[in-house]
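WARN no homologs supplied; continuing
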Amino acid sequence: MKRQNIIAYEPVGRMMQEAGAERVSAQAKVAVAEYLEEYALKIGELAVKYASHAGRNTVTDKDIKLAVKNL
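OK structure emitted
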């Protein structure tokens, strides 16, 4: 069974338009959403490791920033 997408496609389309696209195809919205989800999961996994290493159960914005910096 395929995993359901977490990130909605329409906001992705709006982000692409803010980036300068006049029109964004449905396939492009799906592709960007899938990439963003994959990247966000990698960030989350690394941030959880940082929080755990610091002896915390709570992931903080500092963990996220460090994870983004180190990806």
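The chain is about 70% helix and 0% strand.
OK
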